[in-house]
Amino acid sequence: MQIAVSGGKGGTGKSTVAINLAVELARRFKLVLADLDVEAPNDHLLLGVELAGEEPVNQFMPKFDYSKCTKCRKCAEVCEEHAIITLKDGTPFLMPNLCSGCRACEIVCPVPGAILEAFRVIGHTYVTETPYGFTLVTGKLREGEERSMPLVVEAKKRARNLDYELLMVDTAAGTGNTVSKAIEGSKLLIAVTEPTPLGIHDTELILQLGKLMGLKTWVVVNRADLGDVGKVREIAEKYGAEVVAEIPYSENIVRSYVSGRPIVLEDVPEAKIFRELAERVAGFLGGGE
Amino acid sequence: MQVAIASGKGGVGKSTITASLLYFLKDRYKLIAVDADAEAPNLGLLLGVEEWEEEREHIGAKVAKINTETCVRCGICYERCPYESIYIDEDGNYIVNELTCEGCNVCGLVCPVPGTITLEQARSGVIRKATTKYGFPIISAQLDVGRPESGKLVTEEKEWAKKLMDELNLEHMIVDSAAGIGCQVIASIGGADLTILIAEPTPASLSDVQRAYKVVQHFRQPAYLIINKADLNPGFTALREWAEAEGIPVIGEVPYDRAIPKSMAMLKPVVEAFPDSPASKALKEIAERIAEEILG
């Protein structure tokens, strides 16, 4: 079973919601939290844990054996990323940063052994046991690498290979295809938003994505007192989504964010909101709705 | 000059600060703004843009399509897709998930039945232009949901902006980049003369801005730092220490200020909506320093 925490705009509190829900839901489910915001993974910082269990993500890169290459240019023609350029005589060269590792060049190369397998490390995945009774999987793209999709795919794969009852994914900002990849397979999408015009604008995009993917979607309004929640409700309704929680702007949350200790563990009013939300999620997953 | 504004982490105030800096700098320079957050563009909203004057569709992304009539259901495409973007529907048909397909055409190459899998052009989004009420133009993009290639949209935005700079004789391009460090951000920072990094004093923001700075270093550009919500976390000195150790000049600090969310709700730069607020005063000083030390 899988659920996703997402929400168009950056900085609306996706990770805060994800980690607090994870801590609370880990009491009811054997849980894995996957931080698939591979360009800026922060869940471990918010949980106050050091990343562990590092594994490199190796991406295929073609390596040309020039003694065998017939300079037919097929590899360059088929490369949708234009990562292979050819000299006038047809000699191919690779521009590594553009290569997506898809192997299309290898597939079309007519000479066995002319394209050899090489790899480069485009990032890492981590599996960290947290002190809160669940496992955190993190994907981290290497700086300077452009393509986050392979990292999202690998981190999600690593998470899925673990033993769990509930997999919770925390996505990147935006609504591009890496976000769809992260969300894919979820039984529930929780979109975190702010009730500002900008937040509402971006919420509409994530709700569109949820609808396109046919997902049951809930909306959590963060910093609810900084804007007009009614407008969020309107937009949610338009997409058949439901506003299920409102979190006020809170110094307590900021402090917990900074100190790396989930607020749900503290005896403060904000903790109750997360606990109730977790209960609602558990109810939904247990067939309660 | 081309100036990129980046942060790694989302929500630390890139667009808010960019909008305010543009507001101050517009009187002194001939500017163009580029909102390079194609997945969640907000700068136009913050600058009060209501209508776009010109819109160009970006057709560039490719998506594989499987003809279920001729498909022999051998499953090779399903096995070979690098992104697990092919699924089998209830009737046993192999279908490409357009929301995750990267358009690499591996499925088409391995398919044994010619013509069954085709790679088709798809719209990835739109790029648009407006003239803000402040007089300077803005280029913004909107990626269609679930599409790849946001980086290519940003590259095209910047090309359009460069053309406008030539036509209108503009001096500076200010690029507000997306969160993260991937293709959109690389396209934003690449080609810039320098990057202004924005971070807040939290461990998450520090971690992300450090990653963004590595991208800046790849391009061998100078970087500057603005610390936003500077008084949020008085005990946290690691951000400043990092900047100092790396030799990144801090060109200013903006205090946490409720005027900022209020101004966002009004769809105005905070410096216009609440010019006397503490954040606005700090932003004015920063704009002056940028004018003196960077733009010249």
UniProtKB/TrEMBL annotation, chain A:
Organism in which the protein naturally occurs: Thermococcus nautili
Pfam families with a match to the protein in the record: CbiA (PF01656), Fer4 (PF00037)
Residue ranges occupied by any 4Fe-4S ferredoxin-type domain in the UniProt entry: 60-90, 92-120
Record-level Gene Ontology MF annotations: oxidoreductase activity
Entry-linked Gene3D superfamilies: 3.30.70.20, P-loop containing nucleotide triphosphate hydrolases
Protein name as catalogued: MinD superfamily P-loop ATPase containing an inserted ferredoxin domain
Automatic annotation (TrEMBL), chain B:
Domain of life: Archaea
A UniProt-annotated Pfam family: Fer4
InterPro entries found in the cross-reference section: 4Fe4S_Fe-S-bd, 4Fe4S_Fe_S_CS, CobQ/CobB/MinD/ParA_Nub-bd_dom, P-loop_NTPase
Domain (4Fe-4S ferredoxin-type) ranges: 62-91, 92-122
Molecular function GO labels: oxidoreductase activity
Protein name: MinD superfamily P-loop ATPase containing an inserted ferredoxin domain
Lineage: Archaea, Methanobacteriati, Methanobacteriota, Thermococci, Thermococcales
